[in-house]
Design brief:
By secondary structure, the chain is α+β, with helices and mostly antiparallel strands. 27% of the residues lie in helices and 33% in strands.
């Protein structure tokens, strides 16, 4: 991985350095569906409302604690529970999970994602902490230009096709 960024350089985008790219945190149960490409829509209670994101970096929480890749965002829109139910094949969220997720919410954000480039190997939390003093967000963080450049330099996607096909060399994320 390339050298550490100075403490003055921020992972999170300030108003002057913010990009249209976000890092979104997922629980560990979503890792395999994201790796396989079976998720085409991502539902989130918290999502950007003051910017239109174009790319989403996929951070998988413990026990993996790694960024597994980046997805292009075709669009982001508010959806009701009725609309979300029509998207279940794309979200991989069942009725029970939807009802729990929407509890107290009339609408949530829905990222429509298309092409995903997987990082091989994934970028582990330790590397992010060494380079950025990074702590994963609960939901999402808008990325700075410096963070996007860092991911471009450090996220290798040469094995994307093999990983999507479930190649035996797929990273487990465990050390």
């Amino acid at each position: 991985m390339e050298g550490s960024m100075s403490i003055e350089t921020s992972f999170k985008g300030s108003p002057n350095s913010r990009t249209s790219e976000v890092l979104v945190t997922f629980s560990a149960k979503w890792r395999d569906p994201l790796l396989s490409g079976s998720i085409k829509c991502v539902l989130r209670r918290r999502y950007p409302k003051s910017l239109v994101p174009t790319r989403m970096y996929l951070y998988i929480a413990a026990p993996f604690s790694q960024v597994i890749g980046v997805s292009n965002i075709a669009r982001l829109m508010d959806v009701s529970i009725a609309k979300a139910k029509t998207l279940q094949e794309k979200t991989r969220v069942d009725d029970e999970e939807l009802n729990q997720y929407f509890d107290g919410y009339d609408k949530v954000g829905c990222y429509f994602i298309d092409e995903t480039d997987l990082f091989y190997p994934p970028i582990h939390l330790e590397v992010l902490r060494e380079s950025w003093s990074f702590y994963p967000p609960q939901s999402f963080v808008s990325l700075s230009r410096e963070a996007v450049q860092w991911f471009a330099a450090n996220g290798t996607t040469n094995s994307s096709v093999a990983l999507r096909r479930g190649d035996a060399s797929m990273p487990t994320g465990k050390k």
